[in-house]
Amino acid sequence: MTNVSTMAETPEAYTSATNDFRSDTFTTPTPEMVQAALTASIGDAVYNEDVDTIRLEQQVAQLAGKEAGLFCVSGTLSNQIALRCHLFQPPYSILCDYRAHVYTHEAAGLAILSQAMVVPVIPSNGNYMTLEDIKLHYVPDDGDIHGAPTKVLSLENTLHGIVYPLEELMRIKVWCMDNGIKLHCDGARIWNAVAETSVPLKQFGEIFDSISICLSKSLGAPMGSILVGDFKFIKKCNHFRKQQGGGIRQSGMMCKMASVAVGGNWKEKLRRSHRMAHHLADFCKLHKIPLESPADTNFVFLDLQKAKMNPDVLVKKGLKYQVKLMGGRVSMHYQISEESLERVKQAILEAFQHAQEHPHDVEGPTKIYRSESTEIDIDGNAIGEIQTYKY
Ligand SMILES: Cc1ncc(COP(=O)(O)O)c(C=O)c1O
Ligand SMILES: C[C@@H](O)[C@H](N)C(=O)O
Asked: What is the enzyme's class at the highest EC level (predicted)?
């Protein structure tokens, strides 16, 4: 008798992100977005015949001061095809921050799709790579047959919520041009950088050869990213997108929903989330709860290692105060309520107080995704009925 696998349990329907601090990816579509989808174009985007898809690609490319844009179903796809497209003749390597999503969270796509070596760099200032860090770690294309020359520098702005200083980006850009190295930006939260610094997206477009601009993070669209660059580059990226299964058909509905976010007052939405993050960071400082990095924008990174806080206890305290956490990164977004912010402060404070009596040895910096929540609560009682948060 063949064993019939049991169906995985269906989770309860997700209804609201007002108390969800796990990530800004949990924002839910607004009624306005859903309404917009009902009147979206219905062309086949593989044949470049969907009007709302083309409109959104052109709109975001224009905002970034780039010639063309390409709708991708995810930021991961957008990053991976951009980096592959910048690469020509292996052996080659990509240099990035050791925390970069393209290196840590895209399932070794750089090794598999691009057959690239990655050179992950720990910034000497602890926050962002400077030109000096890059010069120290890049692999020159000098004919030495031992090396895999650096052909692309992939930066993230914001990175872990940290805003990349514009003057540093400009220095890096000039050096990259002098050394024939392409510059890509993982702009999953570039809208946050723009909202916080008032540096126009167009100015980032002048610095980077390509930018992956996510629609599905702080902006609040249900899915997708727009990859922007020059015409020739985007045309080839479209080829790699198709190869990777990203050539989707009637994408108009998703693009029309995203256009509601792009056309809305996203700056104020994001600035509100930044104010909430700054408030939480101040609360942590008041209670001497260490932070891992500056809370420039919408993320507060608790330094669990320095605080000797157990991420499990943090998640359980979150459950106690009806807020969702999954580790040391506390993510704000425009749908977070003021009441939830007050509750998450209590959860964090109690987890920190618990650590005072029960110090926990955390290995290394905060992992930005799950904490392996166990099935028991901090007093050892079963909490089987409460969902634990892990991928
Ligand atoms: C910095 C960063 N880059 C890229 C991505 C990938 O985006 P997606 O989840 O849409 O693939 C994420 C996560 O969502 C991210 O946090
Ligand atoms: C976990 C990671 O892939 C996702 N981008 C997030 O920030 O939540």
From this structure: lyase
ipTM above 0.85, yes or no: yes
For the segment 141-192, what is each residue's pLDDT rounded down to a tens digit?
999 999 999 999 999 999 999 999 999 999 999 999 999 999 999 999 999 9
- Domains of the chain plus CATH, in order, are 11-29+265-391 (3.90.1150.10), 41-263 (3.40.640.10)
Q: Is the CB of 154 under 6 A from ligand 1?
A: no
Q: How far is the CA of 191 from the centre of ligand 2 (A)?
A: 16
Q: Which pLDDT value is given to residue 311?
A: 85
Is the entire prediction scored with pTM above 0.80?
yes
Q: Return the percentage of the chain with pLDDT > 70, whole number.
A: 91
CA of 124 to the centre of ligand 1 (A): 25
Which ligand is located closest to the Cα atom of residue 81?
Answer: 1
Which phi and psi angles does 148 have, rounded to 5°? Answer: -120, 95
Q: Across residues 281-301, what is the average pLDDT?
A: 97
Task: Read off the pLDDT of each residue in 247-262 and give the average, rounded to a whole number.
Answer: 98
Chain segment 26-35, per-residue pLDDT in tens: 999 999 999 9
